Structure formats: structure tokens, C-alpha cells
Here is the input.
Amino acid sequence: MDAESESPLWQSGSGGLLWAQMLDISSRVKGQFTALDALSATFSDLYWLSQQAGSAVDRLQALLARRHARPAARTLLDNLLPEALATGSGGSSLGVAIWAAALAEQAAIDCYPLLLAGNLLLVVEERGDSHLLEPVSGQRCDQRQLDAMVRVSRGDWQRWKPSLLHRPNEAEVLSRWLLELRALLIAHEQWDEALVVTSEQLRRQPDDLYARRDRGFVLDQLDCGELARLDFERFVKECPDDPSIPLLRQRLQELAGEQLVRH
Here is the structure.
């Protein structure tokens, strides 16, 4: 399935394809092929999950509990990279939700991540009911917790209601994962890796101006001033009211001066 497909995630059997795309991107970020350990661990978990009895929620909660016995994440990056999610106990809510839902798909469990602004839940559909879990712990979310999450994303007067359930497509989930990965790499000044991620974002969404701005910043850190200038100029032109514009204009002037010195 193409990354920009609008078909529902996991319901159409694309969870495994999303996981494969993440493994591919992760291998490029780390500069080495890293999928074998992740695939081995995934097959082991899938076999284990297929042997469990009980409701879909019980089986998924048992799978999440099983992760806690594994080695802890060694770096912050391990919270998002799929090979670490498959073999360790760490993980962001998004990373764990993608891992769990991809396995659930193969075990015939109807499960998907619910993407909220600032929060993320794991939804299990069973016998006409929607069960909402916190992905890392596997604990059910009660009405009070759901209301608090909705207030964060939609405003103080909002409350949780079933109509907020939304089954995302592959592109939405991968976009959220790349965004989190990009922010983490930039925050920890891993410029080569951040360039891989920002370039991948722009390959998939060429009109993502904030990814373009961030790629310009990354290129600037890598002393690729001419390429950074092109990204900065595009952002300044199309987002003139963004708070970062004064700093970008200043940096563009500096880059122009550096270019004159070179010539």
C-alpha cells in the first residue's frame, strides 16, 4: 500500500506494512540494517499472543505486560525505533501503540491507535464495544482520564464522547511517528539522523513547510548553507507570520554574506 493511502489502518491489513516502513526508515537513520532482531522478536510475540485465551482486551493487556520484563531502553531514541520497541521494555505511547496494533492485526484483534493532540490511546473493538487503553501500561482509561485528555486537545469545556473515535490511516500514523522522531533527533543534536528523517517527511509530504524549515536548520548545522538557504527562503515566503521568521531572515542575511566571502 502506498504511504499516502487513505484506507483505514489495520482494518485493511496495513499495520504490518507500516511496521516494515518504520524498520526501513530506522535502518537508514542508524546507518545499518537492524530489522532481523525486531522480526525475530515480533514472530515470538505473535506466537505467544496466538496461544493466549480470554477476551481481546485481556490478551492485549497480557502482551503489554510481557514487555515490562524486557531490558529497559538504553537511549531516548529507543523509545521510538521499531527494533527497540520489539525487543525492549521502553517506548513512547505512540511507539508502543504501533507495535501492539501491528501484532494485534495478525492475531485477529481489532485494535488501532487513537491520535489525540498531546495524547494517544490504544482502542480495542470487541463485540460492539470500544475499550480504550493507555498503551504503555495497558490500563483501561476511565471517564475522568478521557475527559482530561480531551480538554488538553480540544479546550476546557470539552468532554470525551464516542464520536471522537477515529481510526487513522497509515499515512496519519507514520506522519505522527516521523514528527516525534524528528523532534527527538533535533533536540539531541543528532544532525545526520535528523536529515534522514526530515528528508523522508518531505518526500512523503512535499508541502510540509515546518518539516522544510527544520530540514533547513539541520542542513545549516551540517554546514550545507546553500541547501539550508533554499529551505529557509521557501518557509519565509509561505509562512511570513510565523514567530521564527525574524531569526530566519537574520540567518539568511548571514548565509548570503558567507556566500559572498567564499566567492
